[in-house]
Design brief:
Layout: E1 2-3, H1 6-26, E2 33-39, H2 43-59, E3 62-68, H3 74-85, E4 92-95, H4 105-111, H5 123-130, H6 139-150, E5 159-163, H7 170-178, E6 187-191, H8 198-204, E7 207-210, E8 227-231, E9 235-238, E10 246-249, H9 254-257, E11 261-264, H10 271-291
Parallel strand pairs: 1-11, 2-3, 2-4, 5-6, 5-7, 7-8, 8-11
Antiparallel strand pairs: 9-10
Helix pairs in contact: 1-10, 6-7, 6-10
Length: about 290
């Protein structure tokens, strides 16, 4: 069993980007600039955005954090989005989700300029990804593909079962895994909460990608020997015996499933760090796109 170490690979990617940024500075060129819009004080969002800002600083990117109060109106948020669309200094930006309930997420995401949508959520970018055109790929699926590539996990002709059909992870990774390329060329089954024979499907799978958000959902008796496991789930589970009052776990019952797996991602330290690394990669691509 080999651990697919997202922390290690994400650090490699950041080092590669750091070298590119240093060369830009030497040539007197503009370095990539990533902005993040955060509305309210959701704990997980604050942690995530803070991590992105620190990563930017570490690799030499410019970064801007726009932190708006919880009661910000949809109209004011849309004005902020339009300002970022029209600001030539900003190469790419993200609007951190979830947004407060009084704001229409779809309306806000639709207002983002697809050329600055480094999250890859805009329908224009999703459509281009589905058609195998050059575009921004949503950071988590992009990170999964990069992890498989760098560990030389064989996906060609394999049966991949994706559990979860979100627009952010499940659907895009099911498309990417079926496309021509390496990784890719896989036969994909997209399963979800209404799938009736899920265990039957996962037992057939050579690769299982779980993005369900249910702690330890995937048990050892649901997978075959030699399976590759990509665990996208990350859930805080309350536990009074822990110093923080909780522990973090994924969708996979790691201790037991890992005994049968040939490759497996840990939680934390697997897909999570890759998501931030690929967001930075998308920002670098956005800067190149704008400079051309």
């Amino acid at each position: 069993m080999e651990i697919l170490d997202g922390k290690k690979i994400s650090n490699q990617i950041k080092e590669e980007i750091t070298v590119e940024v240093a060369q830009m500075k030497e040539r007197g060129e503009k370095v990539p600039h990533l902005a993040a819009v955060l509305v309210g004080n959701d704990g997980a969002s604050l942690t995530y955005v803070g991590s992105k800002v620190r990563s930017c600083k570490k690799i030499g990117f410019e970064s801007t954090l726009i932190h708006l109060p919880e009661e910000t109106t949809e109209e004011d948020l849309l004005k902020q989005v339009h300002q970022l669309n029209n600001d030539p200094a900003i190469d790419g930006y993200i609007v951190q989700l979830p947004l407060p309930k009084h704001i229409d997420e779809e309306k806000v995401l639709m207002a983002v300029d697809p050329d600055k949508d480094v999250d890859g959520f805009h329908p224009t970018n999703f459509g281009k990804m589905a058609l195998d055109m050059e575009t921004f790929i949503s950071a988590t699926p992009f990170g999964i593909m990069e992890l498989l590539k760098r560990y030389n996990v064989d996906t060609e002709g394999k049966h991949t079962v994706v559990i979860g059909r979100s627009h952010i992870v499940g659907r895009p990774i099911s498309i990417l895994m079926s496309q021509k390329g390496k990784p890719g060329n896989s036969t994909v089954t997209l399963a979800h909460s209404r799938t009736k024979n899920l265990k039957e499907l996962t037992l057939q799978a050579d690769i299982v990608i779980s993005a369900l958000g249910v702690p330890r959902f995937l048990k050892a008796d649901m997978v075959k020997e030699g399976v590759t496991i990509i665990d996208v789930g990350i859930t805080r589970v309350a536990d009074d015996t822990k110093e923080k009052g909780y522990y973090i776990t994924g969708d996979v019952d790691f201790d037991y499933v890992s005994k049968k797996a040939s490759f497996i991602t840990p939680v934390p330290g697997g897909v999570g760090p890759m998501t931030i690394a690929m967001l930075l990669k998308n920002t670098l691509l956005a800067r190149e796109r704008h400079n051309n």
